[in-house]
Request: fold
Amino acid sequence: MAKLIKNRALANDEWVLVQEIADPQTLLQDCEQALILPLPFWLEHRDALCQRQARKAVWLDSHELPEALGEDLHGFELIALRFPVFSDGRAYSSARELRQNLAYKGELRAVGDVLRDQLFYMARCGFDSFALREDQNPEHALTAFDDFRDAYQSSVDCPDPLFRRRA
Reply:
């Protein structure tokens, strides 16, 4: 079972991230596997997928907006945001949108090209779980959350800017 970081601790990944769909019918059949499905597949097969008893989640690519989930948003216990390359920061904005404007309370997972050096900033935007890139050491990456002692700006994890916290 793959390791990930969840709530600043190592955890086993119980979910299967579905990236390529060779046979859609196999995913529509009920099975016990917890699946993280691509947004277009969810939107196309929503009714059939809702009939599955197994846990289901959705992942958004960097160009897909969280608003596309509509009323389904709060029904997911997990939403994953994919970083196609580490330098594509659009998922940071999507994370803040989900947490601050859409009030999403479930697990928000960073997937894709996720590096240790990004974890501190991802957590500030609302991510609480991280599926690191394969060449990253999850145990070493845990130290990333302590890279900086404080931040000036407001964020999802600390809504007041530094000048308000000092007053």
User: Anything to note?
Assistant: The beta strands are 3-6, 9-12, 15-17, 34-38, 56-60, 78-83, 107-112, 129-130.
